[in-house]
Write a structure and sequence with these properties.
With 137 residues, the chain is an alpha+beta fold. It has 2 domains: 4-49, no CATH class; 61-136, OB fold (Dihydrolipoamide Acetyltransferase, E2P), CATH 2.40.50. Helices cover 23% and strands 28% of the residues. The chain contains 4 helices and 6 strands; from the N terminus they run H-H-H-H-E-E-E-E-E-E. The strands form 2 sheets. Strands 5-4-3-6 form a 4-stranded antiparallel β-sheet, with no helix packed on it. It is flat. It starts with a helix and ends with a strand.
Amino acid sequence: MLHKHNLFSFAFSSFSLAFKCQLPIYTTRAFFFITQLFRMPTINQLVKTGRTKRKYKSKAPALQYGINKLDNNKKVAKAAPFKRGVCLKVSVMGPKKPNSAQRKFAKVRLSNGAEILAYIPGESHTLQEHSVVLVRG
């Protein structure tokens, strides 16, 4: 009977010879990569649960719903390419470490009640608090 260690050393004997690996094969990154290959579901597991589809994740989740004002402000699945909003705060921030610039952004309350941070493109802008803006995704 082959043990797991023997199976991996057999599978990687040519790999370790080709790259002249000095460490034992089970301490290399290749071991962790190969263990992922052997993690297949059994037939019984597939019969019991089946495969699940990955859910689509929206890049602009605040634009994916609206609010029904007549029915207790309930959220309604009503996606839109643009939404109207009101600026709550306009300010600048710097990006993470290797880059340096002044990124302009505004905190906006959309017509569906969501509060988002919206990037302001271009070199200059005339946005202030309480400005009405159109946000695109």
